[in-house]
Write a structure and sequence with these properties.
By secondary structure, this protein is mainly α. Helix content is about 65%, strand content about 0%.
Length: about 270
Amino acid sequence: MSMNKPETTDAIFRQKYHALLDKPEMLDYGTYLNCQQLLSAQKPLTELCNGDELQFQIVHQVEELWMKLAIYTLVDVLEFMQQENTLRVVTLMKRVSFIQRMMSQQLDLLETMSPKEYQQIRLQLGNGSGQESPGFRTLLKMPADLWDVFNKQYLVGRNKNIEQVYDSQYSHDESYAVAECLAEFDEQLQKFRSLHIFLIQRSIGLEAKSLKGRAVTLLENGAKHRFFPELWQVRSSMTDSWGSAYGEVREPIHNANNQVGGGCPFHQNTNEAS
């Protein structure tokens, strides 16, 4: 029996499956999806700086694909809004919301990297950062057009304003439904940006000298930015109005004996019931 130490199991499996990853068999499915080009869009496996760089590249590449789909879908939304085809608008905005949630959820993958490994990957980026994302930079241009078309077709064109849609003439109509779709889109953008701040805190640290100033400020300002401020302001205005009408502090709904009042027979005490 040979006493030579065999190759480690890890090396055997690595060679076997890396070979399959490097030269996958392309049948009709793979050909249709252009998998040959898609799967070669990352660094060659032998050139990765560590075991997490492939994940880093794939997560960010997938983010760009999600944003491409979101932008493509929002173009359809703009056209259907111009036609006041509200059912299609609501359906497609639901799709965009799902895309945005996927974008946020997959950021959790990046938090499985250690700070040490992330720093090694960061050296591969040159001076690049997520602020340069081509998909996100395009996505940020779309809220202005979305609001302009919404305002023209669903507010001005129907002799309404946001206050009437939400409060004084509230009827849960098409204008309200589309407005809430825009609010959801805005909220998901804010969440996506906020999660990036937590990701940087987890992987790099917000107090790092290299991040002092503009980069962190941009992220923090972006997380606070509201693309459709009218949709958020109307909520505050309604609450202030209700507060002035009903009082900011109202009478408690329990009595002195910590029992619920209001005449509900299920909450009467024994003496009252008798």
